[in-house]
Write a structure and sequence with these properties.
Layout: H1 7-16, E1 22-27, E2 32-37, H2 41-48, H3 54-65, H4 80-86, H5 89-102, H6 107-114
Antiparallel strand pairs: 1-2
Helix pairs in contact: 2-3, 3-5
């Protein structure tokens, strides 16, 4: 019986695909439209290290997820201290939620697993 799947071809197809999605989010507090993107698996791993600290987790999602299609980052990890000291949590939360949403992360699944 022949193999049902050509795993080599499937692997090549997956590795060659561009599955990072781009969008934007308007932040009324800043009167600015920011580019946002899907977090890669590695970026999500960095962000989720702080799942017990939702504020820091959202700030890191903003740092990693606010990038243009050309790869230009709006923020760096050095901006986290300024976010903490001077920026609206609500604004950061909305941007982070948009990034998690387009990244396919549904916090409800994690919350249900805890209960």
């Amino acid at each position: 019986m022949a193999n049902k799947y050509d795993v080599k071809a499937l692997r090549e197809k997956v590795m060659a695909s561009d599955d990072i999605k781009y969008d934007e989010v308007y932040v009324k507090e800043w009167d600015a439209t920011l580019p946002v993107k899907t977090l890669s698996a590695g970026e999500m791993k960095q962000v989720m290290k702080y799942k017990e600290d939702e504020t820091r987790m959202m700030m890191l999602a903003v740092v990693y997820g606010c990038k243009t299609e050309e790869g230009e980052a709006v923020f760096t990890e050095k901006d986290v201290a300024k976010f903490e000291a001077e920026k609206s949590f609500g604004a950061l939360m909305r941007i982070g939620e948009k990034i998690f949403d387009i990244s396919g992360f549904d916090g409800k699944a994690e919350n249900e697993a805890k209960n």
